[in-house]
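Private note to self, pasted from the team thread so I don't lose it. Backbone tokens:
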């Protein structure tokens, strides 16, 4: 078992300190153009984060068993050295990009990730608004296990990626120097990702390195002010509803579907998937609308 630190645990004091600093900064220097903080929203985000720790512990049990089985079956072994850890981080970040992108374009995966986008605010507490059904992410990292990376090393890399993304959930940092913006995921890039305007939707999936988005055609720079939230926002601060509302919408659509083809589309198609209408008829609306920009007055925001 590699002796790797629990970076999330060690980062908690920094999370708390940075959140307090950001909150105080809004008190001292209010910004009418920023979404800022709202008490109920921030409390909901904190509640979702605490809940995710509990549920993640439960999901990790079967996932760890699967990872351990694959690791035992593969003859490959990657030693845990300083330079191999850097390579592991690079590979994990690449796989994270595809995990994140997949969770935006496949509805059953989006039902997990939508939690993170369900706030109309964008501040450091938004980073803590995590899903309770993170079991949807583990298959994306099986290639690392199959190549001989120890499951504990994969977990370490995932934690580093998660910790890095905390600081990019803020409106208090503008654009950084051009070389940094070109290579790394920054608050500017991530504001675009959390925005709901049509031109910003499903963009900037990066974890640490924005170069993946540049390589695979999903990068968009921040120009217009982002409007945060979902294309159809949820009007609840109830953590249970925040965690499950899209699953409930999928269940309603599946019950109302007219056949197995439509049922499959409602689950595995995109969040706005619609069956092809019969000639002369209009398609039935889904419980979750197609990802088109909502009118700005309605706006509010899963990993």
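Design output:
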């Amino acid at each position: 078992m590699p002796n790797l630190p629990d970076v999330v645990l060690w980062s908690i004091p920094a999370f708390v300190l940075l959140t307090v600093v950001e909150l105080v900064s809004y008190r001292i220097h209010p910004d009418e153009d920023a979404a800022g903080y709202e008490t109920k929203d921030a409390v909901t985000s904190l509640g979702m984060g605490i809940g995710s720790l509990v549920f993640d512990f439960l999901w990790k049990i079967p996932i760890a068993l699967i990872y351990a089985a694959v690791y035992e079956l593969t003859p490959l072994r990657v030693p845990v050295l300083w330079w191999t850890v850097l390579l592991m981080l690079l590979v994990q970040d690449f796989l994270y990009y595809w995990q994140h992108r997949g969770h935006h374009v496949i509805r059953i995966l989006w039902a997990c990730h939508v939690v993170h986008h369900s706030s109309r605010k964008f501040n450091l507490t938004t980073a803590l608004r995590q899903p309770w059904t993170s079991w949807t992410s583990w298959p994306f990292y099986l290639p690392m296990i199959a190549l001989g990376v120890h499951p504990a090393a994969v977990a370490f890399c995932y934690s580093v990626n998660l910790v890095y993304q905390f600081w990019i959930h803020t409106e208090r940092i503008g654009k950084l120097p051009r070389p940094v913006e070109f290579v790394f995921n920054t608050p500017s890039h991530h504001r675009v990702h959390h925005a709901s305007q049509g031109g910003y939707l499903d963009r900037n999936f990066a974890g640490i390195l924005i170069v993946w988005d540049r390589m695979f055609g999903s990068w968009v720079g921040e120009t217009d002010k982002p409007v945060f939230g979902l294309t159809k926002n949820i009007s609840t601060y109830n953590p249970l509803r925040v965690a499950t509302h899209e699953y409930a919408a999928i269940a309603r659509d599946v019950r109302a579907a007219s056949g197995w083809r439509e049922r499959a589309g409602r689950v595995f198609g995109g969040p706005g998937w619609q069956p092809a209408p019969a000639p002369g008829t209009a398609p039935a609306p889904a419980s979750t609308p197609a990802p088109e920009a909502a009118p700005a007055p309605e706006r509010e925001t899963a990993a």
